[in-house]
Amino acid sequence: MTASASAAPRPSDRPAEAGVPTLAADATLRFVRDGYAFGIRGYRDVGADAFRTRLMGRSVVVARGAEAAHVFGAGGFRRSGAIPRSTMHLLQDEGSVQALEGERHRERRALMTEFAEGGRGTLVSLFRSEWEAEVEKSRGVRVKLLDLASVALARAALRWVGLALPADEEKEIAADLRSMIDHAASVGPVNWAARTRRRRMEDWAGGLIDDARAHGENVTIVGRLAHHEEDGRRLDTAVAAVELLNLLRPVVAVARFVAFAAHALHHHPDWKARIGEGAESSTRWMADEVRRFYPFFPVIGGVATDPFRLHGVDFPAGQWMLLDLYGTDHSPHLWRQPDAFDPFRFADASPKAIVAQGAGEGLGAHRCPGELATSDLVAAALSLLVSGRPYEVPIQDLRISLRRIPAQPESGMAVIFA
Ligand code: HEM
């Protein structure tokens, strides 16, 4: 990986691949084997940017690229029934914004966007102070940035939604939020254990919603969720609790991008120097390149509510589709030298082309409302890493396996702060 200057990304001159060939009768084992590279290897094998296959016995279309992102992001794909229940229960849940469609989705999404986008300045400044406090505590000892950032982000998120908890409770909540992310793609006992923790968290969050209602507290994010009305009725306690977790959990998930940001700084010291010079654009470009380049969500799934057309082929309502996020962010038709880490590409490319956090525009889409907050948090982490307390990176395994979902630097990106 080198940080070479390159011209702006532009769609390649190659015409869009026509057709949606069949990859294999059932590709479940390939998915398990290839992880994030599942789509990329499939497109190579069929010679197109989309293919049909079966996963766990179910017919699916897997696709990357601008057309696929446009088709998928335009709406018309429901999320319920589109990802395994084991994952659904750790990340989202029935009745939550992601499981809704149509008018009810738009209304709930407007509220979540107001919190995630409108409130991101406060979140970032809370994160900065929690980070600095954690760094001071860790001086002189080897610490994994993935752990340190998770704790700092969890504390910041709890204060952001309006909670002041005893240190012990905060620690437990931080660990539970982290566990939902770490085990989202797991199956069997590990997943069940994480789901048990999740249910415990839902009970805890439900208690907070009840308390806010009992005390008429409607100022903080917890209070506003507790008093939010749809069709003239307050949300069910369980649904408001899930939405509270849908704000807390992904903030903690940003810790992976923070660890990746440190990984990128380590491998590209020239960018450390650029950010150190204080140019805001360098920090922003690098934050966006971290979100594009490093693996996070491999795919997002949807079940078509209407017939749709992709690469000249018509598909019926009911068709299951996976939009390949990693494959799109690494598509040679969209990004020049997609496998090179090169923040300069954002000098004249829009970060909106990144699909790491979903596709689509506006209130009707399911695209992540926390995208700007994520970008701001990663930018803040980059400036804290470059201009904050100096650190060294001890010898460790810095490889990132594309088979491990969610991915991370093998040794958690360990550092020692001076
Ligand atoms: C690590 C950073 C993050 C990643 C990788 C991420 C990823 C995603 C993706 C891929 C989706 C779209 C799912 C789909 O279309 O089916 C999504 C939706 C969502 N994200 Fe994020 N997200 C992140 C950070 C955040 C943050 C910081 C927040 C809030 C503070 C947030 C809140 C949400 C919500 C509420 C949805 C559901 C939106 C809807 O269905 O309309 N995310 N996220």
Automatic annotation (TrEMBL):
GO terms for biological process: sterol metabolic process. It comes from Microbacterium oryzae. It comes from the Bacteria. Belongs to the cytochrome P450 family. This is Cytochrome P450. Its cofactor is heme. InterPro entries: Cyt_P450, Cyt_P450_sf. Coiled coil: none annotated. Keywords: Heme, Iron, Metal-binding, Monooxygenase, Oxidoreductase. SUPFAM superfamilies: Cytochrome P450 (SSF48264). GO terms for molecular function: heme binding; iron ion binding; monooxygenase activity; oxidoreductase activity, acting on paired donors, with incorporation or reduction of molecular oxygen.
